[in-house]
């Protein structure tokens, strides 16, 4: 309830003025902190996301923000970009940056003084190499856990999204993760199977993935969940985010684009094909409990409807993001009852409505033979 009030207040403030100001009356009893997980594309004018971040940063006291640039190649450019954005959305709020090379002592002091931390994009392995090398606790990581335990927020964009869970996806595309070799003879060899490593261990209930719809990452997320015996995955689209309350386990969609909750509790293998997978699109304001879903009995499956399958077209992005994957799941979650199929480079997704409103049953695997004419 608190989280929804804070997000709604931030959204209203975004419309009302160019800055966010929140009055907080005191700490939440038993607060466990929040995660703000951004799929990518966190531009300076993304007021809906910055507004949520600043509202959560103010929840445990006057906001004090640390930017962590460990994932990013050109760190100075990214720090300048995010600092200038925060000057717009949080004028007067102290903002400090910690780089890969910032000493342990200085980094810990900055985090211990903060109410919020923002991880920039780049390569998520750089984050764990710096702050959890060999999957070990470090003084910096323990300071981050203290930040959460006092009701603070840790946010991450792109690589900062991918690193949130107990385990994290490292890189690679969906076809290779599903074990499907390149279709052309002149293609360079690729490592088959999902590439997974230890994450930052902030989110205990799910694995996360970024740039989700734009880069057709549903195949690699399913393969990684299966390989690691992780029931739930959350794929976040660009220009969108989800906020997770670490005390309740509630995940709330936020931002202009959507996310996808994936549940593999009933997954079965048919060769290279993964079947009996469930998904739920998460739009702005939608709320699900990751904690309850992970422990709940599996949702009943619905057989694929008879009748023609609608092939979802892939349109060159042009000025728009490539959202064929998003259209597939949104249409499959609709009320018309038809099956939707998206055929990509060597692999495909086939989806249809579940018996549970708003959910989708789907399967993913190699391209099926074309239907006879």
Report the average pLDDT across residues. Answer: 89
User: What's the CATH class of the largest domain, please?
Assistant: Alpha Beta
- Approximate strand percentage: 15-25%
What ranges have pLDDT less than 50 throughout 5 or more consecutive residues? 8-30
Distance between the termini: 54 Å
Order of helices and strands: HEHEHEHEHHEHEHEEHEEEEEEEHEHEEE
Description:
Helix 1 (2-16) packs across helix 2 (47-57) and helix 4 runs parallel beside helix 6. The chain folds into two domains: 2-295, Class I glutamine amidotransferase (GATase) domain (Rossmann fold, 3-Layer(aba) Sandwich), CATH 3.40.50.880; 309-366, no CATH class. Strand 18 and strand 19 form a beta hairpin. 28% of the residues lie in helices and 24% in strands. With 373 residues, the protein is an alpha/beta fold. The protein has helices at 2-16, 47-57, 75-89, 104-112, 124-131, 139-149, 159-162, 174-177, 218-228, 290-295, 324-332; strands at residues 34-38, 65-68, 95-98, 116-119, 153-157, 167-169, 196-198, 207-209, 232-236, 240-245, 250-255, 259-263, 268-270, 273-282, 287-289, 309-311, 339-343, 347-353, 360-366.
């Amino acid at each position: 309830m608190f989280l929804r009030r804070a997000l709604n207040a931030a959204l209203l403030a975004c419309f009302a003025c160019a800055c966010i100001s929140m009055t907080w009356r005191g700490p939440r009893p038993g607060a466990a902190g929040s995660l703000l997980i951004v799929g990518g594309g966190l531009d300076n004018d993304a007021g809906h996301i910055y507004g949520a971040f600043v509202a959560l940063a103010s929840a445990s006291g006057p906001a004090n923000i640390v930017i962590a640039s460990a994932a990013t190649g050109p760190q100075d450019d990214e720090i300048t970009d995010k600092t200038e954005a925060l000057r717009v959305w949080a004028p007067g709020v102290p903002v400090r940056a910690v780089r890969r090379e910032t000493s342990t002592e200085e980094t810990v002091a900055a985090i211990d003084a903060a109410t919020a931390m923002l991880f920039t994009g780049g390569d998520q392995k750089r984050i764990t190499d710096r702050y959890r090398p060999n999957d070990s606790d470090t003084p910096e990581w323990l300071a981050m856990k203290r930040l959460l335990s006092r009701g603070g927020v840790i946010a991450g964009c792109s690589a900062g999204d991918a690193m949130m869970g107990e385990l994290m996806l490292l890189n690679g595309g969906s076809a290779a993760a599903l074990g499907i070799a390149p279709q052309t003879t002149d293609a360079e060899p690729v490592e088959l199977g999902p590439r997974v490593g230890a994450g930052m261990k902030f989110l205990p209930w799910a694995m996360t993935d970024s740039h989700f719809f734009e880069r057709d990452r549903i195949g690699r997320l399913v393969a990684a969940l299966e390989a690691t015996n992780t029931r739930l995955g959350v794929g976040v689209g660009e220009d969108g985010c989800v906020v997770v309350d670490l005390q309740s386990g509630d995940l709330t969609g936020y931002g202009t684009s959507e996310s996808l909750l994936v549940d593999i509790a009933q997954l079965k293998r048919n060769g290279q094909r993964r079947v009996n997978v469930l998904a739920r699109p998460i739009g702005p304001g939608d709320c699900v409990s990751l904690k309850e879903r992970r422990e709940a009995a599996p949702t009943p499956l619905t057989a694929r409807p008879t009748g023609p399958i609608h092939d979802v077209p892939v349109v060159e992005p042009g000025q728009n993001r490539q959202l064929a994957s998003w259209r597939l799941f949104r249409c499959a979650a609709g009320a018309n009852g038809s099956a939707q199929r998206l055929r990509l480079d060597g692999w495909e997704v086939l989806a249809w409505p579940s018996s549970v409103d708003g959910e989708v049953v789907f399967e993913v695997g190699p391209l099926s033979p074309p239907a006879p004419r």
